[in-house]
Structures are given as C-alpha cells and as structure tokens.
Amino acid sequence: MKLIYTGLSFLAIGLLLMACNSEEPLTPIEEAQQELLEAIQGTWTANEVRKDGTLITDFEGFTLTISDKSYTTTNGSPVWPGSGSFDFSSVETENEFIRQDGRLFTVSQSGSAYLVTIIYQEQNARGEFGTFEFVIE
Questions:
Q1: Which of 38, 86, 88, 126 falls 20 to 30 Å from 105 in CA-CA distance?
Q2: What start and end residues bound the annotated signal peptide (predicted)?
C-alpha cells in the first residue's frame, strides 16, 4: 500500500510540474524573428544610405546599436531618433519591426551586411520624407 501511495505521489508531482510549464511553442515566424533579433545585436555602421533608391550622404557616420529590443543611433536624425525601443509582436512578417513611435522598419540580410529599410513620412524643412535604406555592417 505504501508503494502505491509513493507511486501516486510521484505521478501527481510530475503532472503538477508539467502543468506549470505552460510555455507555448513558438510559431515559425516567431522563431525567425528571434533568430533575426539575435543576429542584429551589436553596433552597426552604415556603409551607404539610399533615399528613394538614390545614394545620399546625409547620414555620414551613422551608427545603430541594438541591445535586446532597444536601440541607440548616432547621426540618424530625423529618420532615426537618438534612442528608443522596438518590437515585432504585431507585425505580419518575420523581418518587420515596429519602433516605439509607430514607424515600421524591415531588416534583411545580404551576405555579411543587413539592409534596414524605413519609410519616413513627415515632411520637414530638409525634405526628409521617403523610403530610406541603410546598408549596415
């Protein structure tokens, strides 16, 4: 009888432990997002910047530092604030991120470089609106 109670106790403990582990598996898109997020951690320098497909020099010395889901930039204004955060919880594809200001940007890999694309829609005195592509390494 004691053996039955011991066995049932272990079974009950096992079931409780399994019930506590309610972490749901990641979807394929969530897995791809996690992998991309891990890959882009660090400090990146722009090798070139294009606005609406045309090479520009307005962002000379641009750097983007990504740590977890936060970023800091150098010489990114007005397209990139000096710092902020981003997430990908409400996007449709694995390479889309939404900044804290609601702007969507995408990241795609090309060899050892990444292409960060953002559509900047605010007209200002400098005319800084359009699609910006930052090739970072």
A1: 126
A2: 1-18
